[in-house]
Design a protein that fits this description.
Helix content of chain B: over 70%
Largest sheet of chain A: 8 strands, mixed
Shape of chain A: globular
Radius of gyration of chain B: 24 Å
Number of strands of chain B: 0
Distance between the termini of chain A: 47 Å
Strand content of chain A: 15-25%
Largest sheet of chain B: none
Oligomer: heterodimer
Structural class of chain A: alpha+beta
Number of strands of chain A: 21
Strand content of chain B: under 5%
Order of helices and strands of chain B: HHHHHHHHHHHHHHH
Number of helices of chain B: 15
Radius of gyration of chain A: 25 Å
Shape of chain B: globular
Chain lengths: 529, 339
Amino acid sequence: MRHWLATLALVLLAVPGAVSAQTRTETLLVVTESGPNSMDIHGVGANRPSYQASWNLYDRLLTYGVKTLPDGSRMYDYSVLKPELAESWQVAADGASVTFKLRRDAKFHDGAPVTARDVKWSFDRAVTVGGFPTFQMKAGSLENPDQFEVVDDYTFRVKFVRKDKLTMPDVAVPVPVVINSTLAKKSATASDPWAMEWLKNNDAGGGAYKLESWKPGQETIYVRFDDWKSGPLPKIKRVLVREVPSAGNRRALLERGDADISFDLPPKDFAEMGKAGKVAVVSHPVENAFAYVGMNVKNPPFSNPKVRLAVASALPYDKIFSAAVFGRGVLLQGNPIASLTFGHDLVPTPFKTDLSKTKALMAEAGFPGGFATTLSFDQGFATTNEPAAVLVQESLAQIGIRTTIQKIPGANWRNMLLKKEMPIFLNAFGGWLNYPEYFFFWNFHGQNAVFNTSSYQNPEMDKLIDAARFESDRAKYTELVRGFAKLMVADVPRIPLYQPLLDVAMQKNVKGYQYWFHRQLDYRQIAKE
Amino acid sequence: MVLARLAGRRLALAVPALAGVVVVTFLLNRALPGDPAAFFAGPAATQQAIHEIRVKLGLDRTLPEQFLLYVRDLARGDLGKSLTTGQPVIADLLTRLPASLELTLCGLALALAVALPLGVLAAVRPGSWIDHAARVTTTAGVSLPIFFTGLLLVYVFYYLLGWAPAPLGRLDAFSSPPVARTGFYLADSLLARDSALFRAALRQLVLPALTLGLFAMAPIARMTRAAMLGVLGSDFVRTARAMGLAPRTVLLTYALRNALLPVVTLLGMVFSFLLGANVLVEKVFAWPGIGSYALEALIASDYAPVQGFVLMMASIYVVLNLTIDVLYGLIDARVRIEA
């Protein structure tokens, strides 16, 4: 027994092979809840961590500029497009196409030069394979392989199907990556012309990082591509992304100084770590996003706008904000457009906790005695949803609405949203492209996308959104945005609660972190001192 | 010869059981709530996108058709593809099974090393301080939830004291795994004659194995004590003592060997239970085992890995039961004769 204990102590105390300080400052250890399921962002069911893999392994034609916020933190600038693989670009005089000039020194990881044929193959792939990539391309009116033309080896043209101000911004989102087509085609088959199988597990990119190894569900290792030409050579030579499912352990790893950086911890942990000051916590409000209470406007009782207004007057906005996210966010109280997005100051905040008028509203709606219903939320986000749901339940009880809370497992949540039968529920939405009409198009347009969780359909709303999408006159555009925001506030298909923060915790010697709309880590910008 | 016939009969009996498992897991998975197509259609899904994915996954076919396809693939050794990791299920399971086995075996060995002597001593001196100590430790071990013990150990030995390595799975972030021969890092690093790597792997194993061991200790110690008490009170032990055999011989050669039968049965149960149930330990220690793999898949309504996992566990049960039957025969001649 004593012998056994002594062995145990020896094992525990033994020092592992010391890693030299030099390599440690050039190596980034990222800990994350879950990892990628594909290296190919066009793949079926590619999850969010796959976007991070793809973002760092592949280049796109364009990227966004960077701006520094008043608090000294950095975020991408959606109003500035910058060259990545394309050295320059020119919109034709008639406004019907855009021509990209590719940089001549760019190479893929296998040394092959990047040509316009690779770009066309990649764009053709994105609009053809279906699912998420194809829909994202469509959001920028990139719909058809005929639109993409190889002018010569280093010149690529996109013909517009319509004038859409989202076309150019959409070229810089994670989907239109440039793939090494010669390499990929070697693994293409008759039944798999786009080499989906091979690209899922292999790297055919030309981005700043190469894939060294990938053990799905465990870790992904990247090494710097020293021949990268699309920007300044990154400082970090090697990136290790380890999957650590327990949030408590991710926090412990950071606080002990073993891990360098981590997203996805509960808001409470970020709040405490920020206060303790051992590690740096950087936070940005997530653009074009909010958490909300949604109501099904097609089915009674929430089909009655007076009931919805009564709910909006009963919710304890401040309490939800402090209990669910520990104040980590921006309190919106009814303003349908999040801060940092154009239009957020156009419609003043109308909803307040005011129980005095709820009684009259419920009586006018024909429910003087209230009613019983079910309040649902996604269990996958129980950390924030659960306390919010309890507060909503409590406040609704005060106006006679008796709710049963229904927790829905993550796997079933999207299915439930698609069915559009939940009477009242908690949810959140964020849009990549930072335009209010983009948000409204997905959430309130009569096309009734999955994100229009309230099944809200109003021809007046559709007209305003459609007009705003293609309006180039600033004054008219502002009026349209004000119009649809007002309409949403008047009809209350959902009640905005708060705009969440994107938090990230890192060692104090980690510099250069920048917020991206895709909310993934860009290794290229990070340096360790 | 008798043993071989026994083993053969047991194996034949396992076939219908496994067939049943195939059918039941297939149906159960389909009965689960959640639509994998909706889950995997991605953030900007429309009904059309979801339909495209449903066709791609073969979910638009009828249930019997899906089942036939599944059985055909199974016959070819193809367990399907995991959507959460993007890899073939069989490859995932084969890389992860050694991790779970290594952890479970180490945990079980730790538990045995403590629980057997503890149980024997408690039985030899019932009511003594050592009996009470055994009762307290085993009750504590089994009543503390396994994830709690794990988190507590991490908090004390890693976070506060800094003795244990970071809970980062089978190896620290800067070691690379040994060449896979057995899949067990301890064995592989020894085969590669890499003592630093062996130590690194062992350091990672200590806390999770201890967590599992603490949990498994209780039933083993209780069962050993009960079985020993029974045997020690029996006629043949009294006779052996009366014949003047050394107390040591009576205890270890005669009493313990006879008391082991129920303990071995229990060991089999504890082992298979731990293998499936160490998902919580795997989660806490970022251990890339099969339990956490199946759980993640279940959360994502990812059918193939769940089916593969259940099928594999069923096969392991069959092999395990067989081994235990054979062990019975070795320990107790009566089993051989009765078979």
